[in-house]
Write a structure and sequence with these properties.
- By secondary structure, the protein is of the alpha/beta class.
- It folds into 4 domains: about 5-110 and about 205-240, P-loop containing nucleotide triphosphate hydrolases (Rossmann fold); about 115-205, no CATH class; about 255-430, Rossmann fold, CATH 3.40.50; about 450-490.
- It contains 17 helices and 20 strands.
- The strands form 5 sheets. A 7-stranded parallel sheet has the order 3-4-2-5-11-1-12, with helices on both faces.
- β9 (about 185-190) and β10 (about 195-205) form a beta hairpin.
- α16 (about 465-470) packs across α17.
- The protein is globular and about 70 Å long.
């Protein structure tokens, strides 16, 4: 029997949660049990406050108790709970025994998967106890050794002098080891001429087997099509229907909305934004300033010192901004306290790292789908959808506001996505779009294809994989590998 996910789809701030709360009260009055699943403690607190008259049971990590154990306890019908609020991370680890008694309402799309990879030395891999490596490079615990493997543990930190290499006894490696013990699909790159290899796996958060166990599932979301969660719901065989929790279509925005893309397409990356450029500060005086600060300075000039502006940037982006600029977490779901602001500055990247490519390829092959479809779903979720959520933290949520809204976003493609999704009447102004250069390296003019090929080899990709990607002769790629081996020997 095909299981169903009922999706309540509407723009941020349109009243999905309010509509759901009305229906939840009705369900509980009929004697039905409802489990509300949210992404953050902040959103859990807000929902419990909205439903305080229903005396909801809130499950979280505060108080020193295991949230998973508490949730498992109160899911039991004998405990007499009819309304529970918990976080998504808790739900995807709970037991399934009693879920058939519960209707589940998930507020905001969860993250169904995250890639994980660490670089280690080949000699360290060989010293890892109780591990076997199959022909397809999958790691497993040797027969009869699971008990010994569980007992194996010790603490260590990253290898001195190279934070990209970790000790086999480090916390990161322990996470990998735990994944192998749980029979997850952990792989290692092939042995090569370099001293390094990569352990990697895609951590899947098991929402879908739990959804199949529930009596009914409803998801409240601003987006669905093309998202990472939609990709996984499809491969797990779910049918998607319109939820009865869907609110009425909201009125069109009264505000004039202008979207300013700030970067040329293809420049939305840490390597570009974190590069330092030489700029003139005073006549005859120069200094080096990071590109992301230069972009922020453009926004400061446009916004001025009077209007409020919300900033959504990665943790590494340490910006000098005026007091009227408020730094917000990039995961802003549940952050509804800034509806008086009419300016938003989003400057983060939704690209996955190079090593994640291996995770995506393995995962796509596992489900019989293309790597490109999974990569695109990742970008959709962590660039486009995330920007949409952040853009709507401002006065766009205020139905009565007529203040003009200015959204400063990454690229034209992001601006076009916002316009096509919910901001249909918005104007896209490319007057501040600029191309920012990356840090120039001393020495010969860089060969970008060669440099990227070498980076892939250093990350553990095989000669054949690099040959296929760049259409290079085998002799050329092997020469790159020899150069890496010589460098490692000299070090």
């Amino acid at each position: 029997m095909t299981k169903v996910i009922n999706v309540s789809l509407s723009r941020p701030g349109a009243g999905k949660t309010k509509t759901a709360c009305v229906k939840i009260r009705y369900w509980v009055s009929l004697g039905l049990r409802v489990l509300i699943v949210v992404p953050t403690m902040l959103l859990a607190d807000q929902l419990c406050n909205d439903l305080s008259d229903m005396n909801p049971c809130k499950i979280d990590c505060r108080g020193g108790f295991s949230p998973v154990s508490r949730l498992n306890k109160y899911l039991d019908p004998d405990e007499g709970q009819n309304l529970i609020v918990c976080q998504q991370a808790t739900f995807c680890e709970c037991g399934k025994e009693f879920l058939n008694n519960w209707r589940v309402v998930v507020d905001e799309l969860p993250t169904p998967m995250f890639p994980f990879a660490i670089t280690i030395r080949q000699s360290q891999l060989k010293s890892l106890p109780y591990i076997e490596i199959s022909e397809d490079r999958r790691l497993s615990i040797a027969d009869g050794c699971k008990g010994k493997a569980r007992d194996w543990s010790c603490g260590a930190s990253a290898i001195k002098g190279n934070p990209n290499l970790v000790s086999m006894a480090s916390q990161e490696c322990q996470q990998i080891y735990k994944a192998v013990l749980q029979d997850k699909d952990v792989y290692v790159t092939e042995e090569g001429e370099t001293n390094n290899c990569i352990l990697y796996y895609a951590e899947e958060f098991d929402f879908f087997s739990r959804f199949k166990a529930c009596s009914e599932v409803h998801i409240l979301s601003a987006t669905w099509q093309g998202s990472l969660f939609a990709w996984f719901s499809l491969v797990h065989g779910f049918e998607v229907l319109v939820s009865e929790l869907t609110p009425d279509k909201p009125e069109e925005h009264k505000q004039k909305v202008t979207i300013y893309p700030l970067l040329q397409d293809g420049q939305c990356s840490k390597s570009v934004l974190n590069s330092e450029m030489k700029v003139q500060t005073l006549p005859g005086e120069f200094s080096f300033v990071r590109n992301i600060q230069l972009v922020a300075d453009v926004v400061k000039e446009v916004v001025g010192e009077e209007d409020d502006c919300l900033i959504f940037v990665q943790d590494w982006a340490k910006l000098n901004c005026h007091d009227n600029f408020t730094r917000c977490p990039t995961d802003s779901r549940g952050l509804n306290s800034y509806s008086s602001a009419s300016n938003v500055f989003c400057m983060f990247h939704g690209n996955h790292v190079t090593t994640a490519t291996m995770c995506f390829k393995r995962l796509a092959a596992k489900y019989g789908k293309s790597y490109s479809s999974l990569r695109d779903a990742w970008t959709q979720t962590f660039l486009y959808d995330a920007t949409l959520q952040n853009a709507y933290r401002c006065s766009l949520r205020d139905k009565e506001s007529v203040a003009s809204v200015r959204l400063f976003v990454q690229t034209y493609m992001v601006a076009d996505y916002l316009k096509r999704t919910y901001l249909y009447d918005a104007v896209i102004d490319t007057g501040y779009t600029k191309s920012y250069g990356e840090q120039k390296k001393r020495g010969p003019k860089p060969n970008l294809q060669r440099d990227e090929a070498i980076r892939m080899l250093e990350s553990g990709f095989t000669v054949v994989e690099v040959m296929d990607k760049f259409k290079l002769p085998k002799s050329t790629v092997k020469n790159y590998k020899s150069r890496l081996k010589k460098q490692a020997t000299n070090c």
